[in-house]
Amino acid sequence: MSTHTDLRVTLKEAMKAKDEVRLRTVRGIMTACTNELVATGRTPQDELKDEEVIAVIKRLAKQRKESIVQYEAANRPELAVPEKEELAVLEAYLPTLMTQDQIRPIAEAVKAEMGVEDKSKLGQLVGAVMKKLQGQADGGDVKAVVESLF
Fold first, then answer.
1. Alpha-carbon torsion 11, 13, 16, 21, what sign?
2. Which GO terms describe its molecular function (predicted)?
């Protein structure tokens, strides 16, 4: 079952269970997916590919994380609570990310493959590793691992 179809099923389950947080979050994901379809010139009745849905969910999770930081910096914890609840639901749909220990051997292999020996090519190396991992790792973790190789 595709992620898009899974979201529709979860939406119905959340309605039946009267789970407001999950319902609100899944509706937000579905809306963002529809917006993505329209932005790419497709009709709202089409379905996004799994990797496109994951990209949309990652973007929504990033927005929630930024909002939480802003609310806590402004000393508004009551506004951060719903964002944290939604973030927990969003993270349930995201694939588990690789750890730095799992990234290191791949980064070392790409470094050897590219023949990079100095820090001047750091950006290219990070880009190549990210391309090889295809969204399975956080960019900050990849950058930290690549920097530690020099």
1. negative
2. carbon-nitrogen ligase activity, with glutamine as amido-N-donor
Could you tell me if 65 and 134 lie in one domain?
A: no
Looking up tokens 């750091």 gives 122
pTM: 0.74
Pairwise CA distance, residues 145 & 150, whole Å: 9
Whole domain around residue 109: which residue ranges?
100-148
Report the CATH number that the domain containing residue 87 is assigned in CATH.
1.10.1510.10
Q: In terms of domains, do 135 and 85 share one?
A: no
| One domain, residues 78 and 121 | no
Residues 42 and 80 in one domain: yes
Give me the number of domains the chain comprises: 2
> The tokens 């990797």 sit on which residue?
51
Closest by CA position to 147, among listed 93, 107, 102: 107
**Structure tokens belonging to residue 32:** 């963002």
